[in-house]
Amino acid sequence: MRKISFTNQKGGVGKTTTTINTGAGLSRLGYRVLLVDMDPQANLSYSIKINSGRLEKNVYHVMKGECDIRDAIMKRESFDLIPASIELSGAEMELVNEPARENILSDAIEEIENEYDFILFDCPPNLGLLTLNAFTASDELIIVLQSEYLALHGLSKLMDLIQIVQKRLNPNLKVEGIVCTLYDQRKNLNREVLGHIRDHFGAKVFNTVIRDNIALAEAPSHHKTIFEYDGNSYGAEDYMKLAKEIRNGH
Ligand SMILES: Nc1ncnc2c1ncn2[C@@H]1O[C@H](COP(=O)(O)OP(=O)(O)OP(=O)(O)O)[C@@H](O)[C@H]1O
Ligand SMILES: [Mg+2]
Predict the structure, then answer these.
(1) Mean pLDDT, the chain, as a whole number?
(2) pLDDT at residue 51 is higher than 70
(3) Hey, whose CA ends up nearest to atom 29 of ligand 1?
(4) CA neighbor of 123 nearest in space, from 106, 141, 107, 111
């Protein structure tokens, strides 16, 4: 069983798209997959359509201790999902006096983790308590970088946080890899940035690069994964390749 957080405090770099479609890819490879939406924006939940009737039991209620984690799990045909809702934005403040508040998610996940092969956490675009909970509950991090100018900007802050978590909260945590997304090979800048990222991080960078592909942007509005929406797209090809690379270990 592997627990992986997809992270970058920078917004709009492809974290949610990568969490969904890597999860969908792994489930197509035959693995039991659970996705956990840790972002109050709840983009992951909406992207694969949630039955709003179930929203009263989501990751917020689990973290507040108001519901059993099993009651928050939505079973889907391919993978399972623990959704989020906007209420999660209050969790940061509401849990401030909770003892061991960084461990709440980790403790809850422990109950069910043996029922899955992969548990994937979609982190919000900041380094607050929700991200800390995801890092504490994970064994692995995958950093999602957009192949754009300033891709590495702010990354030292993320690396500092990872070190602190490793030291104080979760000594098992490791950076499994770095995935570059929204890559347009026609753009010199994208090529240059990718080269720069590879120079900087070497073998940590996944061989798979996620290309800029309109189908990936369209699929969420149809509440579909890329495999359901357009199985012949570059997006489907790239995310299946990434899922295999993750499965094989990096
Ligand atoms: N490879 C891609 N090709 C084309 N569009 C993409 C690609 N990856 C992501 N997108 C689109 O870019 C936007 C941002 O992607 P996404 O929501 O996955 O980023 P994020 O890092 O999760 O954002 P946030 O920080 O707000 O949570 C979305 O509209 C998404 O559909
Ligand atoms: Mg997101």
Answers:
(1) 94
(2) no
(3) 217
(4) 141
